[in-house]
Amino acid sequence: MEKSALQNDKIGTFFTNECMLLYDYYTLDILEVNDACLRKYKFTEDEFLAKKITDLGEKFREGVRDTSSNNERFQLPAIWKHYRKDGSSFYVQFTFHQLKRNGRNVQFCILHDITNEIPDLSKKLHHLPRVDTYREQLPLATVEWDRNGIIRDWSPKAEEIFGWKFEKILGNSLFKAGVVKLSQKQMILDKIQEMTAHQTTYFTFDTAVENLEGKIIHTTWHNTANYDQAGKLLTVVSLIEDVSESRVAEERLMASEQRFRVLSEASTVGVYLIQNGHLRYVNPMFCKICGFDKNELINGIDPLELIHNQDLKKLLTIRQRFYNSEIDSFEIDARANAKDGTQIYVRIYGSKIELDGQLAIMGVVIDQTRQMEMQNKLNHSIQSYRDLFNSIGDAIYIHDESGKFTEINQTAEEIFGYTREEMIGKDPMLFAAPGKVDPKETYHYIQSALNGQRQRFEWWAERKMGRFFP
User: Fold this and answer.
1) For residue 274, what is the enclosing H or E element?
2) Are 170 and 233 in a shared domain?
3) Which of 171, 223, 159 has the alpha carbon at shortest distance from 194?
4) Which of the four pLDDT bands, split at 50, 70 and 90, describes residue 37?
5) Residues 132, 166: one domain?
6) Can you give the pLDDT at residue 256?
7) Using CA atoms, how far apart are residues 284 and 365, in angstroms rounded to an integer?
8) What is the chain's Cα-based Rg?
């Protein structure tokens, strides 16, 4: 019991006294620190969270393989010289554990104070070869260079990204060798001068260059300055991230979006994008159709406010089915309210898409107001014609070139006793009086009329009830 309690006490002391922190695996931003860090470094928590892990000091020795150990794979971690807020220093080695936190790649880091061991380590390390075993495990390339851009160190990962071997690139200029664009040289040198003047330790830049194989590579450089005790800049250590794949994907996406925007902006139909019940995008034609400008539509108007009250219910039903995944697309005719209060007729198309990981509706709106007006006028014209057609006191019928009736008026129904439905599709022999009409002669009259010769002749008919009349 006592031994177990003692062990637990030692474990509790370890978590209380050892400096521990979390930092972003890629940006190196410090995300969390424990109380031991606050006590040892004498920074406040806010001051810590404004730093990167590399801002705490500079590398004192690289990690190496210990050839004196029986285990050939045994490696000694790099040693860093860290500074407290008051300027005093101490030496640390890191223990790293990579993990995921809220979907983010982070490093859990324990900082071991080895200040008291430095004299012994120095003697031991003096006899060991310099092997970049630790750097080989990093996903980022490391390059060290002086204030003039002359390369002083070059990691295996840098060889992999850029193609230049260590022995070929060492001593060359970043800019002349083509590792960084020559056009960026003055900007970077100005940044170093500014950094030195203010004794800051970190800056970043992006660049795109050709590697030895002629392939364009996009990189992000995270740069940390190393100063001597007098505050003179010694070197800059850069952690370089190859972002070519993400940059190419981003450029393709931007090109795709640009093509969509060009086509959309010039489109003769309205284009819209709705997410979470709000318009995220509308093209100029959409604005023209409804009369609202883009800012009004994007920043304050619920899309359903544009729909006429009498058609609102069917739009709500469509939307509910859409979000319930019952349908993936829809097409619907509806009346809409324009900004000036007029009623417009539209046909709305919509399809399901995913945008930023969320469901969205993208579609087009076609203004059918003019077509509806024309259709209404046509319907009115047809009705007017029919009214006139039926009001004539003589029987009138229209038939095609084969003699089939295509239209009859109301008087023809009354005279012959057949309904319109009974007569449409039939020919005049339907009501020809048996024995009093010559079919051949009748069709001759019809053919002559079709040839443009007006025909006038006497004929005998039989009403539906059987009565003959001339």
Assistant:
1) strand 270-275
2) yes
3) 223
4) very high
5) no
6) 58
7) 12
8) 43
